[in-house]
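Lecture 7, part B: from sequences to assemblies.

Below are the input chains for today's worked example.
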Amino acid sequence: MKVVFASRTGNVESIVDRLGVDALQIQDGSETVNEDYIIFTYTDGYGDVPMEVEDFLKGNSEHLKGVVVSGDTGYGEAYCQAGDKIADEYHVECLYKVENDGTDDDIEEIKKLIQ
Ligand SMILES: Cc1cc2nc3c(=O)[nH]c(=O)nc-3n(C[C@H](O)[C@H](O)[C@H](O)COP(=O)(O)O)c2cc1C
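Predicted structure of the full complex, as structure tokens:
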């Protein structure tokens, strides 16, 4: 499965690198994808979907198959809420929530999910 990701401070990029899969990085949200994909995103603000991810999804919802989200438990109730918001809005599953850049166990679990 193709992976599309957004990363501001490098955690999501590190996760995707360790998966060893074909991946497209969202820069400004104007990118297009014409095959099924899973989106990997970080959480911004207080439980918010990053703006470039919102823009990307507006133009590319047709092939979206699921979301993997990174966050930080220090944000309490807003932990990884970007993933829940995308799942609700686009009627896909939030497949996995990972703290920051994840552990080796997280990477193994995510590998299984995206196969
Ligand atoms: C300004 C800011 C706001 C954040 N807000 C949240 C939040 O509401 N919920 C959450 O779970 N994590 C939040 N985080 C944590 C990031 O989503 C998390 O560290 C993530 O791994 C960053 O991914 P990246 O390094 O790929 O950009 C926030 C981080 C920053 C810097």
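Note for the exam: The chain has a mean pLDDT of 97. Keep this in mind when comparing with the next example.
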